[in-house]
Amino acid sequence: MTKKILLLTGDCAEDYEVKVPQQALMMLGYDVEVSAPNKKAGDTLQLVVHDFIGLDTYVELTGHRIPVDIAAADAKADDYVGLVIPGGRAPEYIRMYPETVQLVKDFFAANKPVAAVCHGTQLLAAADVLKGKTTTSYPACAAECRIAGAEWKNEPVVVSGNLVTAQAWPNHPEWLRAFVQLLGAKITL
């Protein structure tokens, strides 16, 4: 039986933070289902690419379009072994949907592995699951993590119980390795 992972995101998620984990986990044999609120299976999400061009913050460029596999309202934590929450602007707005907040709470209640990167911690903060956790995120989200009760660390990747967080997509190798270990898989060379 193939183990399933839920990738919970939305329009304007960071392209690299959706596609790289999706494909890396699929390469390891996991069935990764993309889910979003306000969308149904077969709908399309527009991803974006963030880049730094000498401004104080990043700019947003058009990324790939990807299909939704399951509506967030239809996804159940019991059907998955883990949860991935990419960053970009998507977490800022998908945290407004009760079904996404409840999904996150359900994964934490079941103590299933959760991987969040960059702005993904905004959804975790909205779900009120960061109390007592140690986390990292894109530095602009540090205040939200602290307000939500987490100890925020300025480190590329942080593991805290069932949660692994990373600052941004350049941290994918360490972040994904830690997530796969939380899933119980062993990567050997």
From TrEMBL:
Keywords: Glycosidase, Hydrolase, Protease
SUPFAM superfamilies, per database record: Class I glutamine amidotransferase-like
Keyword Membrane assigned: no
InterPro entries: C56_PfpI-like, Class_I_gatase-like, DJ-1/PfpI
Pfam families tied to this protein: DJ-1_PfpI (PF01965)
EC id: 3.2.-.-
GO BP of this protein: proteolysis
Family matches, as PROSITE patterns: PEPTIDASE_C56_PFPI
One Gene Ontology term of the molecular function aspect: peptidase activity
Residue span, DJ-1/PfpI domain: 3-181
Enzyme class, UniProt record, top EC level: hydrolase
Keyword hit for Plastid: no
NCBIfam families xrefs: PfpI (TIGR01382)
Family indicated by similarity: Belongs to the peptidase C56 family.
Designated name of the protein: Putative cysteine protease YraA
Gene this chain is encoded by: yraA_1
